[in-house]
Write a structure and sequence with these properties.
Helices cover 28% and strands 40% of the residues. The chain is built from 3 helices and 8 strands. The strands form 2 sheets. It has a 6-stranded mixed beta sheet, sandwiched between helices. Strands 5-6 form a two-stranded antiparallel ribbon.
Length: 127
């Protein structure tokens, strides 16, 4: 039987392959992001936009902690956003940043996501 860790670790692999047709395997139809009910289609749109804005985007789990229905992760990124990212003029410069994210699972699918990106790390790199 798959553990929550197994399921979660397969999720960023799905994202890195940009296999958005398989996203529903991991994400609930009624998913919420940072308190907003966006549903699976809105979540997919958000991720597709991220990959459009950051073509070399790769999700790397640096730290992973899980319990019965929740996963906490520190995701690290080394990427080159094409233009403005988080209201910052990155414009194709390579930046390293982390996202701190909590996932709540229901029926072994991601139902709620709370995410914070370390914007200060990007600001430091841009000078």
């Amino acid at each position: 039987m798959q553990t929550l860790n197994d399921i979660y670790l397969a999720y960023p692999d799905c994202l890195n392959r940009q296999d958005f047709d398989d996203l529903g395997t991991f994400v609930d139809d009624t998913v919420e992001h940072n308190g907003w009910p966006i549903g699976l289609s809105g979540y997919r749109d958000m991720l597709e936009n991220d990959f459009t804005d950051i073509p070399d985007l790769r999700f790397e789990a640096e730290i992973l902690v899980s319990e019965a229905t929740r996963v906490a992760a520190r995701l690290s990124f080394d990427c080159t956003p094409r233009a403005t990212f988080m209201d910052l003029p990155v414009n194709g410069r390579r930046v390293q940043l982390c996202e701190h994210v909590f996932y709540e699972f229901e029926h072994m699918k991601i139902r709620r996501v709370w995410s914070v990106i370390d914007k200060a790390a990007i600001e430091r790199q841009l000078g």
